[in-house]
Amino acid sequence: MAFLKDMLLTTTLIISQRKIFAQMKLVTFEEPYYHKDRIGIWMGQNDVVDANYAYARMLKDQGEDYPQRFADAYVPPDMVRLLEGGKKSMAAVREAVKHTEEIGISKVFGAQGEQAVFNFSKIRIKAPIPRPGKIIHTAGNFREHANEGSGSGWEFPMPHWISFLKSPTSIVGHEAQVIHPKHTKQLDHEIELAIVIGKKSKRLTKEQAWDAIAGYTIFNDISARDIQREEMKTGLLNFGKNMDTFGLFGPCFVPKEDIGDVHNLKIECRVNGDPRQVSNTNHLSVSVPEIVEHYSWVTLYPGDIVTTGTVAGVAAFRKDAEKYFLKPGDTLESEIENIGVLRNYIVEDKE
């Protein structure tokens, strides 16, 4: 009986290990020695494997004479360049994952012995794409958000296909601080699914849009509502959405093949553990490819971001809204099923 019990335990552990690697998640992290950005494969809860070094190690084990040269070409340590590599680069990363599984994470080093495995909690996880080319934000696609706005007395209508550009300089990643500007008293959160473009595209059909999508991550569109309200009186939507640290992005990039049903993902935004926005992508009034199709009148490039718009539950549309606006000391958690939790901290503006 003891033998059978041990066998069952071993089998359970093996199955558990396989489940860990069933879904690929990629992160951009700051390498701790030379402080350069690298692409990591997030393997389970704690381990991040340098994708470039892992692929080079695989090639070396296969007898390749110039493993690092080929690794730099197929799995470059930069997310935009990786996306530009298209299906060949993503296939190479998956080969590196498979080889890592086969030899064991503890045996993975670069072709020249470089450290390739890092503890997730010991490295700085940056936004998956630290500086996207452009970020197209949309609104009105979750009608629940539009309806709560009109029900709260928000002065401005929220029809389908509202869009605005978010500044790439506002981007920050996982565990980063969000500066609460001195000139706003109404700092708000807007959790959104972010669609990452994978190929240069323009004037897409809905069917073509699927092929243009590389994958997904989480975005939280931090908004200064009092500034936004004043701007929108003149038809603008600018500084209220684009202050420093107003673009929360991460923690990882999930390829579209690994997301599951993108139209059935749970969404939750929490402040100090309190659920504020709780919804699901099945509440979208339009599909993800329709969103990409609609905004492809402008050329989309690998690494560009198009968001879905946010769900109900923002502070500005609540009764007693002042109690719910973000304040220094708050912890903000943005979670989407099959992606993870993006955690950020609200801090006082000291400049």
Keywords:
single chain, 351 residues, alpha+beta, SH3 type barrels, Fumarylacetoacetate hydrolase, domain 2, 2 domains, 7-stranded mixed β-sheet, 5-stranded antiparallel β-sheet, 10 helices, 19 strands, 28% helix, 28% strand, globular
Molecular structure report:
The protein is globular, with a radius of gyration of 21 Å. The longest helix is centred in the first third of the chain and has 19 residues, at 2-20. With 351 residues, the protein is of the alpha+beta class. β2 (37-43) and β3 form a beta hairpin. The chain is 28% helix and 28% strand. Residues 1-20 have low confidence and may be disordered. The strands form four sheets. Strands 7-6-17-11-12-14-8 form a seven-stranded mixed beta sheet. The chain has ten helices and 19 strands. α2 crosses α3 (67-74), α2 (51-61) crosses α5 and α7 packs across α10 (288-294).
How are the SSEs placed, and which strands pair?
Layout: H1 2-20, E1 26-30, E2 37-43, E3 47-50, H2 51-61, H3 67-74, H4 79-84, H5 86-103, E4 117-119, E5 124-126, E6 135-139, H6 143-152, E7 162-166, E8 171-172, E9 177-180, E10 187-188, E11 191-197, H7 206-212, E12 213-221, E13 223-224, H8 225-232, H9 239-242, E14 247-255, E15 266-271, E16 274-280, H10 288-294, E17 305-307, E18 331-336, E19 340-348
Parallel strand pairs: 6-17, 8-14, 9-19
Antiparallel strand pairs: 1-2, 1-5, 2-3, 3-4, 6-7, 10-13, 11-12, 11-17, 12-14, 15-16, 15-18, 18-19
